[in-house]
Write a structure and sequence with these properties.
Number of helices: 1
Protein name: DM13 domain-containing protein
InterPro entries: DM13_domain, TAT_signal
CATH class: Mainly Beta
Oligomer: single chain
Number of strands: 10
Distance between the termini: 44 Å
Structural class: mainly beta
Helix content: 10-25%
Strand order of the largest sheet: 7-6-9-10-1-3-4-8
Length: about 130
Amino acid sequence: MTNRRSFLIGSATILASTAMPSLGFAGGHGRVGEFTGKSNHVTKGRAEVVTKNGKSQVILLDDFWFDGAPDPKVALGRNGYDKDTLMGLLKANAGQQTFDVPAGVDAATYNEVWIWCEKFNVPLGVAKLN
């Protein structure tokens, strides 16, 4: 009985490991951070920074939620917002969104994802990356 159980467990492990497709940028492969609001704004959820084949992206995950403000943009930071990493306007105030990190920016050297109001030059939320 022990040999049969070992065989079944081993077979199930092999099947599970080979049946899973490659997910690419689908999440779960990069550095993740939890948002906290700034400037009296509520910003919640997680952001992930992933790099594959030399291309980096910031993914606001399904649990992302923001209370709204004019001109909210996504950027990276290194212990503070870096305007040279702006990736564009927030696409929605809630849910998963993906942004391409600008060419020439090494996402690995940054430790934060920012939601930034460019119009008023104030932070709206920041996620410290692990």
